[in-house]
Amino acid sequence: MEVQQNFSLAIEILGTIAFAMSGSFAAMQKRLDPFGVLIIAFVTSVGGGTIRDLILDVPVFWMHDMVICSVIFITTIVSMIFKSVEKKFKVTLFIFDSFGLGLFTIIGIQKGINADLHPLICITLGTITGCFGGISRDILLNRIPLIFRKEIYATACIIGGTIFLGLVKYSTLSYAFVQVSTILLIVAIRTFAVKYHWEIPKFYGVDNSSEM
Amino acid sequence: MEVQQNFSLAIEILGTIAFAMSGSFAAMQKRLDPFGVLIIAFVTSVGGGTIRDLILDVPVFWMHDMVICSVIFITTIVSMIFKSVEKKFKVTLFIFDSFGLGLFTIIGIQKGINADLHPLICITLGTITGCFGGISRDILLNRIPLIFRKEIYATACIIGGTIFLGLVKYSTLSYAFVQVSTILLIVAIRTFAVKYHWEIPKFYGVDNSSEM
Amino acid sequence: MEVQQNFSLAIEILGTIAFAMSGSFAAMQKRLDPFGVLIIAFVTSVGGGTIRDLILDVPVFWMHDMVICSVIFITTIVSMIFKSVEKKFKVTLFIFDSFGLGLFTIIGIQKGINADLHPLICITLGTITGCFGGISRDILLNRIPLIFRKEIYATACIIGGTIFLGLVKYSTLSYAFVQVSTILLIVAIRTFAVKYHWEIPKFYGVDNSSEM
Asked: What sections of the protein cross the membrane (chains A, B, C) (predicted)?
């Protein structure tokens, strides 16, 4: 049980690092000053989980735990230093964002399972945890929101989450194995989708919203 | 009493359908993939009520109730199918959005009354419930926020809400009748406002915000 | 003790007036109708504090207290009347926004101290209280978010907050004096930063986010 808890903590820290990096790089790309970069990194990392915890009415995860805040602080500083030798913003941002998405989706679903909620609500919480940090980052930075673009983003999150929940409930595989494999599956779906230009059929309406 | 509860549930479901449709159509108009459409439909439907419940510190209404989630899911799928024969996005979106606004405003005020809050706070909660789902949808989709446009939106919500509260407190009319008539009043105010180009006088400052 | 409480209430009311004015002027600048102006004034004033209270899991401060709502209501009406003789939106908005930032940052940190939280979390809560009302206002009004611009905004908030916390913990100065002086410090940092074009070195990446 303790091993399992340590493992879940490790996943939470990895997800926090991934999203803090993703937020830092996006903010530096938009030329914010260091404190602005720190705020964006913070919102990207804790945004989804904060909304999830508020909805679940449990204590917000980063409030009484200095580990998460310290991790974000250190990651942001490392990103700033690392930045000076790093030019490939797009690829870096994409990779960290994908890992953060996978890691946080699974954490969100686990919290829903622990609260004995309906599977559909669990997947909803996973999607909120995975997607809302990145969505908040994009809204704050005036970027085109990720869910908008051609990349398979929410889709990877929902498919991966559904498979995770199915395996946890109906398979005899070890919990840790199911965690790691579904996280990698979410990252893989997004990566291959972008690499091979996979696309889900979209709706072709006339975009006249701005005139409405 | 039970009749009253069933009636309130019916109103909640109708409002959820209306906003899920409004969210789905807006998302399809912006050419999102089916999962993106689902997320936008979800946020539009539950966004306002979620913020209201968090502020009231009561359990979030869709957490332990599969009815709302199922309604959103089914409505979104029906909207996607219906879409292929539906071209008049603007009118459809407008009608559903107006009904959602009216229905949710009244639900929000009722929750405030049940919690014994001051009338001004009740109207605030009604406005949050009615407007914030649509506002979230517009922010996520990068649309010009509804409250921005010429349409009388928040105004309809505040006027209708105030009349509802006055009738509930000081009239002897049946509760159900007051509910239905104020909902229709909100829809009517918005519809006539758009149809006959009603406008509330606005402030004509120089819009130099972007240079600031 | 009572004097201290009255003093804190006075600060809260002043901050509310400052942000309600800032929200009203920004909304009038964008030519919203009076009800839209009221909503923006409300969100600007209570946005940051609401998120803080939800995270702290304490009752939202404006729910059971008609003082705050009345102050916002009256301030908005006064701003609308005052508007007709007021042309210098930029300067007015800037001054009120700066005072609101200083006042609310200190209130947020105080609430964190009262809840016995880690200093780093206290500064985070102060930053949320100070910045998120203005950020919400800018997102709702489609303005370029303040934290984005050249002005030293979040920076003033974080520096002032850190000094406040240090003086409260390690100095023997009176609490009221520390409050007033750090609030004025935050306003001073922002004002001088804008006046003398102070700038924190930023990151010069290529801004290609829109193509991503």
From this structure: 6-28, 35-55, 61-82, 91-111, 117-140, 152-170, 176-193
